[in-house]
Model the fold of this input.
Amino acid sequence: MISFLELLNIIWVTLFVCFISTAISSFLAAPLALCLGLKNGVVIKVLRTVVTALSNVPPIVAGLLVYMLTSRSGPLAPAGWVYSKTAMVMAQILVVTPLIASVIFPMFLEMQKDFMETCKGLSLKKSKIYYLLFRECRYVYASAILIGFGRAMSEVAAVSLAGGNIRHKTRVLTTAIMLSTGKGDFAEALSLAGILIALVLLVNFLAGKLKGKNTDVL
Done:
C-alpha cells in the first residue's frame, strides 16, 4: 500500500517531469514550426513529413534512445543521468516536441500567403511579423502545448525505460499504476488513475481561465 508521503512524492515527480519537458518542448517546437510553416522547398517538405511521422513514433523508441545515451556504455554516461529525472525529461522532450510542432505548423502554412504578404506590404520587421503571427495563433499554440502536456502525463513506456521506475526517485503516476496493476492491487491502481485524471482536468481548467483572461484583455 502506498503511503501518503510516497503518494505526494509520486505526484511531485510526475508534475515536475511533465511541466519541465513540456515547457522545453514548447520552446523548441516554436522555431521548428515557423521554419516548416513559412518556408518552402523540397527539404522543407521532407522535414514536414518527418516531423509528422515522429509525432506518431512509439514513445518506447524515445526511451530506448535516451537509455542508450545515458547508460554506462553511452556517450552521456559521465553525466550520471541513467535512471534519473533528467533522462525522463529528455525522453519526453523527444516525444512531445514533434507532436507540438506538427499541430502548429499547418496553421502557419495556411496563413503563409495572405498574412506574410500583408506584413511585407507594411514593411514590418521579421521580429514583429513573428510576434503578430504567434499572437494570431496563440490559442492554437496553447492547445498544442496542452496536447503535449497530456501526452507527457499519460506516457508510460519512455519514462519507465529512461527513469527505471525507482521508488522515491523516478516513479510517476503512470508507472505506479502499471506496478499496482501488475501486483493485482486494482483498488490502488484505480485510485492512482483517478488522481492522474484529476490533475489533467485541473491543468486544463487553469489553462481555460488564463485563456479567458487573455480574451478579456483583448
Summary: The chain has one domain: 4-172. The two ends are 50 Å apart (CA to CA). The mean pLDDT is 87. The first helix runs from residue 4 to 38.
